[in-house]
Protein 1
Amino acid sequence: MLEIERKFMIASDAWKDLADAGTPIRQGYLSLGEPTVRVRLKGTKAYLTIKATKSPGVRHEFEYQIPVGEAETMLSTLILRPPIEKIRYCVPFAGHIWEIDIFEGANKGLQIAEVELQSRDERVDLPYWIGPEVSDDPRFFNAYLTHRPFAGWGVDYATLLKRV
Amino acid sequence: MLEIERKFMIASDAWKDLADAGTPIRQGYLSLGEPTVRVRLKGTKAYLTIKATKSPGVRHEFEYQIPVGEAETMLSTLILRPPIEKIRYCVPFAGHIWEIDIFEGANKGLQIAEVELQSRDERVDLPYWIGPEVSDDPRFFNAYLTHRPFAGWGVDYATLLKRV
């Protein structure tokens, strides 16, 4: 399938009033090239996902559920860098489900909101707690964060919010 | 699971008397690094396979059946090089199943026999039609053949048989 998404920084914690309980995610990459190959533990399930850029903001995505034990083996022995850890919260707003990623570990402090769209130009009402858009900023790509985690950016999130 | 296999050249066509009807395989790589990520069409089925070297001749292998249509999309749009094409024949011999790959396309002329083992030092009776072992010769790795297909080796198979 094609994945079309937009990605934003988060301007306030107001999203928490609308969020679900959150699901822990641990993921890593078997290939950081093009395409990327990602293994992800999400709650009690595991997935293998292939993504390749088709055009800006639009990606081929193939996702397969795999046994949790095999994902754990891949995360502990095969991935190219330490895994990314985050909690994902789902927040409904004006007909879309927003995914809020609160990063931990080497990316602690980083927060990203994503929304999936049916087409690149689909109109989406931005929640009032949304910050600047970073859809095309490679620093915020998860594959990039494995190379250059947020801890090494040398800037705190509040300062970054004003600069992006 | 762990994959332990040995790989050989083929000295004669005598294996054909014992072989099945053969299954066409078309495969390509989403990652040629370590681990490799392979997509394969095999007959009417499709698989995504991750392999990583654990020690010489021993590899981690994770294989997942995927929808044929998705494999076809990956093979036509996402793989890093032109696909490898071959016919695979299964040949029972002395308690093992040998897999004979007869390559086509850019690797036409190349023939490889493989046998999977339970352990690296498992005794295996070599069929009389088997040639020299090439288990640790990277030229015969399928991932390598996508970079350097047999057509460009500048040697025919009969000559190579004497040299390896």
Note: Chain B is about 15% helix and 45% strand.
Protein 2
Amino acid sequence: MIIVLKPKISRPQENAVLKEIKRLGYIPHIMRGVARTVIGAIGDERTHQSLETLTAWPQVETVMPVQKRYKLVSREAHPSNSVVHAGNVAIGGKKFQVMAGPCSVESEKQLMSTALAVQAAGATILRGGAFKPRTSPYEFQGLGEKGLKLLAKARRETGMPVITELLSEDHAEMVAEYADILQIGTRNAQNFQLLIAAAKTGKPVLLKRGMSMRIEEWMLAGEYVLSNENPNLLFCERGIRTFETYTRNTLDLSAIPIIKLESHCPVVVDPSQGAGRAELVSAMCKGAVAMGADALLVEVHPHPADAWSDGAQQVTPAAFARLMTELKPLITAVGRT
Amino acid sequence: MIIVLKPKISRPQENAVLKEIKRLGYIPHIMRGVARTVIGAIGDERTHQSLETLTAWPQVETVMPVQKRYKLVSREAHPSNSVVHAGNVAIGGKKFQVMAGPCSVESEKQLMSTALAVQAAGATILRGGAFKPRTSPYEFQGLGEKGLKLLAKARRETGMPVITELLSEDHAEMVAEYADILQIGTRNAQNFQLLIAAAKTGKPVLLKRGMSMRIEEWMLAGEYVLSNENPNLLFCERGIRTFETYTRNTLDLSAIPIIKLESHCPVVVDPSQGAGRAELVSAMCKGAVAMGADALLVEVHPHPADAWSDGAQQVTPAAFARLMTELKPLITAVGRT
Amino acid sequence: MIIVLKPKISRPQENAVLKEIKRLGYIPHIMRGVARTVIGAIGDERTHQSLETLTAWPQVETVMPVQKRYKLVSREAHPSNSVVHAGNVAIGGKKFQVMAGPCSVESEKQLMSTALAVQAAGATILRGGAFKPRTSPYEFQGLGEKGLKLLAKARRETGMPVITELLSEDHAEMVAEYADILQIGTRNAQNFQLLIAAAKTGKPVLLKRGMSMRIEEWMLAGEYVLSNENPNLLFCERGIRTFETYTRNTLDLSAIPIIKLESHCPVVVDPSQGAGRAELVSAMCKGAVAMGADALLVEVHPHPADAWSDGAQQVTPAAFARLMTELKPLITAVGRT
Amino acid sequence: MIIVLKPKISRPQENAVLKEIKRLGYIPHIMRGVARTVIGAIGDERTHQSLETLTAWPQVETVMPVQKRYKLVSREAHPSNSVVHAGNVAIGGKKFQVMAGPCSVESEKQLMSTALAVQAAGATILRGGAFKPRTSPYEFQGLGEKGLKLLAKARRETGMPVITELLSEDHAEMVAEYADILQIGTRNAQNFQLLIAAAKTGKPVLLKRGMSMRIEEWMLAGEYVLSNENPNLLFCERGIRTFETYTRNTLDLSAIPIIKLESHCPVVVDPSQGAGRAELVSAMCKGAVAMGADALLVEVHPHPADAWSDGAQQVTPAAFARLMTELKPLITAVGRT
């Protein structure tokens, strides 16, 4: 920790800060500069109490942490890339993976036709929502366990592992029974009780970035999974909230190289939510591949305009097949298969 | 709903849109403008399925909803101001209320000394966190039920009703047993399962605004409380996330008159989180009073630099007493007591 | 400057950093912490070249400045409040000032009727745009010099000093001839050539905050005025750009106490642009008064729906008179006249 | 234009709105819905005065434009891609172009060594700043005309056309004499006088996106160039301001497909400003290529840590050469040369 004192502080005021630093277990180290006195507080910031409370002291101008606050998700802790296994599929290895399927599971027919179509086009994991977090209580909230059963059936028939969203701590065991990957949605990205419940099932957890989550906060939310004995964490960028209104969210593709730099966990990109418009999905997928993502999560629906949720951002099976064809040269160009 | 077609659309493409609008239960109404054809879809947007899925159609440029999506929280539904009762305290009436206390309950001594001090200065409701959502899993997570028991004890001794945060659906009943108002924190503002669980306890629910929640989304989250048979909802502005880094969040005081315009529910302001710096808390409280807030929620700690969480933004009992004195002429100036 | 090295850096890599710090005129000071080595670089950050370029070095993790970069606008440089004089009006003193008038000058009749009405209601400075920066080239761009002449005439007839926007370096002298205060608009807040041209006229400069300007950047833009021999600077908060779409901008009233804390310059609040809706203007004005602003800048138009620009956010003379009456008790409550 | 009336409006109030719509030259068209009455105002929104002023009327809830406000930059106006020529280089055609060079021109040696190095690595246009907009008046402001002369010399010796920033209307002719492309920086993106001055030189104009500019505003700023008889406009995405602090700005790569969809003008990406960290530049360049950009603008400096401005985000000539090699397979994969 670095503590910057305000200008013209008396020696007793300075001593009070030094005493407090020692009381909290750090060794203070004074540097007298031209305009400010700066104190370095030496000690492990992750095991000692934070000194940020010193900001409340009238003689203190700022307190700046030196260490990063995340441990287990960091590359320092695990220098090589982690590979997460879901069913027979490995995410984070040389093979680029594509998760595809409808936003919401609506019926057996809708799910099965989509599953077969995306598999034929090259998808390796089936996505589909059974529990849907909806901004309004008057919108369709998902089929619930019935949807999970349909997903499990689609898995049996196609062999594809299944990813679906977990909304409630109370459902963790039930969802884990049917799904291969538990998805934590953007609105729950800092619902730490849900993260802990998901981690404890032992299943891989895909953690979507919160709408206004800084990279550091996202990594710390991931830390809730890894510190609960579950090493199978996937980060999923899906767009952040900005002032721009042309798209529903601003897909922050630079999160890919940043997470790769800071962490060992695989990175997935969900362009559907970022685009909010099916016609932009294709370009975003290409960018994600080029920038080093390990997998995509794409919403596909047999008849998007019919969809019970988020129809505007789902692509048709035909458009998805075209997308997969267009992605191939890029996947090769970045040295993946 | 208003559907704007792209320029130069063929008649069969247009007819397909009309057919879909009818299929979803609306009556279409065509207007041929100079550059675009616009279709009005007449029907109740809150009972019919949304037409926003039409955005996925190639012939459609935009779909614009006409109605507001919230019902029960809106002033249309309930033209006069709602008053919410917690213990013997009424929030939303002529009397301006102040909720104050420590960010986290740390010990009986810390809580009781703070409670007595804030009561002496004029606070009418005691706040204190027993379960704390922390960005990092390595930070202090609250005393849990032990903290709730201390709050209940403080209530007995001071007569002040108690507000505390609810973090987990599984704790709803337990927290409701000890507390008079359940607080839903900013990270859980769209944790709809938690909102439903809180609503079902019947206790008043204070809903903090999510970090990047638009007013409409906040109102819709509130709708989850009212539509679960609980009319006792308080909206609490606590700062939104912007590009500014001087303060931790940007307190959006304009939310006060907007909520007052759109809704009948009382508005509370929490300047502690918005300021992130105790020295700015006072000015923000004055602004909140002047702009029509019904209550304040202020973090007070006997020794802020010692606090186990968020020390930087807590004020001392002495500063709080000064603040209360400074607020008085403003409270009078806006015609409250 | 504080330089944090990455973990596990070799001694020669560390020495290279130390050598560079010395070469740039600072004295390095090493602190070896538990997880990182930190170097304090002692020297005046405002006269030496920045060390931030070290971030490009592979062995460096972060570089953190310790000093604030603004000098002349800071309270350290001038501890007491500055008072800026425009005509016979003093801004920043005990008397609260109100600048009011139409967004654009449209005609003599429109300007004169508004000027007389706002003066009767208590305004002391007349505002009106002669050159208008418009998002689209197809919108009304202002009456130009003809508008300036009308403003000068209104000043003669009412005795009120006049504030108007300066858009182009080439107009600086002409606008300064007619106006008492030069307004720099939000889109030009970092048009440094314009700031220099405005400063050189010697007239007071009102600097609106840029749409996404951090406090520090705003202060530094103000520094362009003061460092060009013009001490008459007014900061004007008018709303920042955020994700919220209910209002056109988010009025950041917390900027008032922050500027007061950091700087000696007066603070003006323009709620018209922040609200984008006349019905919210009143509450925002009250908040501004309560939080310590020195003046308001309010758009008033005899027939807002007729206005040639920004009609939605202008209030009628009658609404303005009501507003002035409502503000009085608040102005008294904060100890001003 | 679509005008939504508030619920329960009287017939005379409705008639007043209809009258005003007619007065402004539109033909009103009424639709009575379930909860609201909606009026379509038929007429060309780009030649008639806007109806948005109606928002100020008490009986009006919202006013929604139907048409896009930009004309000449839109794909509707010019369906095929525009190609912009600078010297012997065509931007927007099949060949992918790379503009590279130092942030600031510092000396002949620095510029020439960088120019030769980037040319050898495959760059086709030389960038370099002679006038620098700096957040603080105490930072290096560029070499001015001396820098322009060095750029002209580098052009003679390498044959590469030159791009440099224009800061002041007063310099437009001088800069146009030396440069092949005039760059308008992010802080001046809505400095309309500067855009007009740049357009009038007839030279191609590269318009960087403002820090918080919506796509529509950016297109409208471009409209200032095209409507001043200059068809040679390049849009340049360089990162927008968000809440994220890991990078200096958030590079919004989705702007590429959006601009391609809405406009015929070429799109350039400047990853240096978006990344703020040289180590992320490479990934961002790859994303830009994959998503359909026509050119890159990359800051290269022989010794980044020595640079007089923005050292942290400049790459070395060696890193640039590596980058160019890495980009090749991606450029081929998207069908360009």
Note: Residues 43 and 93 of chain A are 37 Å apart (CA to CA).
Protein 3
Amino acid sequence: MAVTVVGSIAFDAVRTPFGERERMLGGSAVHFSLAASFFSDVRVVGPVGEDFGEPELAVLEARGVDTEDIERVAGGQTFFWRGHYDYDLNVAHTDETALNVFGEFQPKLSEPSRQADVVFLANIQPDLQREVREQCTGARLVALDSMNLWIQTARDSLVRTIAGVDCVLMNDAELRMLTERANLLQAARRVMEWGPRIVVAKQGEYGAALFSGDHFFALPAYPLETVLDPTGAGDSFAGGFLGYLAAHDLSEELEDDLLRRAMAYGTALASFNVEEFGTERVQRLTPDEVTERVAELQRFTTFVDAPVALRG
Amino acid sequence: MAVTVVGSIAFDAVRTPFGERERMLGGSAVHFSLAASFFSDVRVVGPVGEDFGEPELAVLEARGVDTEDIERVAGGQTFFWRGHYDYDLNVAHTDETALNVFGEFQPKLSEPSRQADVVFLANIQPDLQREVREQCTGARLVALDSMNLWIQTARDSLVRTIAGVDCVLMNDAELRMLTERANLLQAARRVMEWGPRIVVAKQGEYGAALFSGDHFFALPAYPLETVLDPTGAGDSFAGGFLGYLAAHDLSEELEDDLLRRAMAYGTALASFNVEEFGTERVQRLTPDEVTERVAELQRFTTFVDAPVALRG
């Protein structure tokens, strides 16, 4: 089974209290692809400029990601983001955004990309997300991410786009903003009323919560003593989550147990993402490391109740 | 086994987006006592004024809490706190604090209170906490809570007090502030270097994390669609957590499994606390409701891994 992702392919300049990089491979579609590649075939769709070269393509191809639908725009420059984090690594401060080739991006999916079982609409303008969604007629599971910018500037379009997908993966603060519900459970229910049957609230260092129908599941983040750069963690989470699902039978209604396991793999991939800058850690990640981290997560979250005489 | 708590006994005035109460029973020792009373004998130590009457005592006594060490100060007024919450219920805004009888409080524990197996030093001035700790020569487990005020105004005393206890239960933001470590795992390790062998980071609606030696465990909060008033949730958590431990054999080193279960009972009690104003919900809570909520928490947090062929 295959997963197609449409989103940004970027050069990032990032400074954190622990170091900085002036120009490194980034973008939501890149972080997602590398994470999902541990589980299933991945096809990445997005524009790049002439400055995007063989070394960057090689990072994706080394993980078996299909780059046929990466569109190289003649005379263009690749999307660029510059940001920094202070000691509260949960908050990204944007210093500069240059859309470049992304400003004129019109997604055109090849036939194999349209036929993927799972599609991830990473955080891009919601009209574009909807255009992609309409091209993917064969998809069994379509998920999207979004952000405060689109909630503030294109909310109606975003709600319409959400109505056409199966799964929404967003930061919990943005789910609250989108639905105007301070309570996360109410926010998730509101999104499900619009159409999706699965809502994942990403909570940064606190982990993630899963809502599907009346089911609820929550998982803390993997505890790390050293976090160098959180950029892309949410996309790596989505890549682990949806990549895992794409590797399994989606012909029947998604089982609760399968979704829970997918949450664990998403959590594991996100944790590796933040250990180093950009894609550095995930580039040399091994399957055994992923497996071991999921096993640790299980140990970190399991409790076994025992009878206790409570006093009335 | 018995638990002694030393802390505030108060009248609270609270306004949230969902209602308000002009004067209701509150205080850290009260919330703690009611929660702990589901598991073990509880003795509450703290001062009240002449305005503290039979109806308030009756709330504690209805749950079997021993109130012999509540000191009634002639001519005094009970500690008063007025606060409000906006839609972000994680942030309490203090509008008025009247220490009243609490300003001159010198804790004097009766012999039975000194001999309790478990002692909770609720959030009061750290010098007072240390005086209490020194009186409790028979305690097998002493825990404390604190807050930003004491970190800012009495940090040296607080660190000295922490060095003499077994367990620290604090909000995660305050653990970071106290230790000057942005990373929670580093913050917990720093506290353990000072002496305690257990650190619990309370994370509000995100749950709580447990650190003990090299062990780690985390549990999300119980998901609630309606939260009316978060006041006292942290103390109810502590009451459930330490009350549960006090009901078990502490003669050997605390087992990881036992601590994890205690986290689940703390989480359950905190969730009931916030469903209504002040102590209203916990006053009519039943043992079966507690048991059922812990079982639900287990369902909400369990995942079972299954073999998956990861791609190298």
Note: Chain A touches chain B through 57 residues (CB under 8 Å).
Protein 4
Amino acid sequence: MKIFHLGLLSLGLLATVCVADTDVKTERYEITIKPVATGLQNPWGLTQLPDGNFLVTERTGTMRIVSAAGKIGEPISGLPTIEVKGQGGLLDVTLAPDFSTSQKIYFSYTEPANGGNSTAVSYGVLKNNRLENVTRVFSQQPKVDSSAHFGSRLIWRKDGTLFITLGDRYERKDEAQTLNTHHGKVVRINADGSVPKDNPFVNTPNALPEIWSYGHRNMQGGAINPTTGELWSGEHGPQGGDEINIDRAGKNYGWPVITYGENYGGGKIGDGITSKSGMEQPLHYWVPSIATAGFIFYTGSQFPEWNNNIILGALNGKTLVRLVTDGDKIIHEERLFSKELDQRIRSVAQATDGTIYFITDDPKGSLYRITRKP
Amino acid sequence: MKIFHLGLLSLGLLATVCVADTDVKTERYEITIKPVATGLQNPWGLTQLPDGNFLVTERTGTMRIVSAAGKIGEPISGLPTIEVKGQGGLLDVTLAPDFSTSQKIYFSYTEPANGGNSTAVSYGVLKNNRLENVTRVFSQQPKVDSSAHFGSRLIWRKDGTLFITLGDRYERKDEAQTLNTHHGKVVRINADGSVPKDNPFVNTPNALPEIWSYGHRNMQGGAINPTTGELWSGEHGPQGGDEINIDRAGKNYGWPVITYGENYGGGKIGDGITSKSGMEQPLHYWVPSIATAGFIFYTGSQFPEWNNNIILGALNGKTLVRLVTDGDKIIHEERLFSKELDQRIRSVAQATDGTIYFITDDPKGSLYRITRKP
């Protein structure tokens, strides 16, 4: 255990925060979990910039650059109106595929309208800690007066289209099975917000054309499998039944008709069954729930034996999970750590040097870095 | 918890053993684990007879009928010479597919010869607690002076052929990769010991024609998937790397070239890699090892939500594991219990009434029954 001194002087704070490194022996590596920055308000989205620093969203409605050394920047200005309520607020952030030339970033957030709200996605050009030319490219329909199940991960497909994972809005879960709302769906749009012509329901009457897959509950994690190019998503079940799925065009993932979970406090959901013809089975599921959050497919040089493994954060489970994949299968699960840190993990990112960063969901949340123990 | 009185008077023992039922709340059911009989010497094989009683082998070289009520019978006579040494002795037992007319049972055991030993399989006709017309149908080649890694589960394929899982004999692990020995192989024979004409290597020069698949370490569990008809096997890795595989004709499962385990005490095995072209990946694996033993695919009426799930015993892990399958995938793992019982589990059997029986590996091992808690 080493003592780590966070230099917060640059924030005008005359304090030295002493937090310790944590060493953990995992199946394949001894790792060190280093606190990089703390005091982030419920951080939600995390992505690395080409200069090595990080973009972090705070659910409370701010976005900041956190330097690789842990310096927390001032809020980035120019964000649209965001409703901060329950699970809602500023959520995910991702760089445009052409960020190096366009400086565009995409972000998801809770958008208020008509006495309700829903998830929206906008982009803006990041310039001098300010977003310019902010343009909305997606707005989940319909708006609902709810404070829960907003999704929403933003994942670029290799063809330049954007996947957005959208929650069922909790009270409206039955609409995860209908194609005339965006509730409980993965949608796919072009970078400018238009609808890709090859989306599965573009020619289906009364179906919203953005829909890619349906029958979802609340997906707070997703990533492209680097080998297959397909979208894998992580979905919160109710009390039990968290899932990993491969999200394929036009497929029905069964919520709320089939689930491995049950209602909070007990009792069956839907038909009380776990499988049904025409509905996809998960690749992997957890009972009880761990509350799956953001994840990556690891492809770095720091942990070569984790190549193509999923590294997944969990909220309620307070654990970082490693899932070994083989083609379209998950063949092994390791909980890299849980009690050693005892914090809700919201998002995970791989840095260009192959180390892994993650953020914790807390009013005083932190950014951590995982390296191999020297 | 209820107190259960074992009636051992019929054995001439004037003792009343009081052992308790154990109730466990699992993900899907509250179950009760009831001791049925105790005092079995390292029981290894377990199968139910049509009359509801059980055939149990003891590794120490005896086979007995244990009644459904828990009465332990006298040793069945007529067994061949068995070498009881290390992991060797009398091992698995299974009824012939035509048992109801032939009364034939098949059993595997350690056969001494030429200063060494190996796994052999014989059948006999069970009559009045005696085996008659005992006939050897398989003898693993070559004989080796070793006390370890004998396999050996006996599993009937739907076509009436018999799979035998065979260990690598520990000191001879490299021969799991060569086709001129039976070390580290699954073999397939006809009920009379002859070689099925469609075995994968019958036309391969210098290959033993009984071989079905190779590159195995020590498989102590196996069962036919009732949906697909294929053989699934459970394999002991070294320190880490226990596996579940689907054993397909002619396939190479990689041992000792690839493994997710490492040597006892640490250090790489073989090439120190986990995958290689031409070698199969496991469906599921455990690090650290749980020491996978016998398992079934559950198909009974007592636990309908466990339909087609694997129920697998573990020795070192002292746990009973439930694996949820979906086609050729394993999508969820539950440890039904471990510390609640704290005993090494060797074999599992499904009774005709849908309850589950298992035996524990101990010089005073027990037969247990799992029912739904009323």
Note: The first helix of chain B runs from residue 99 to 102.
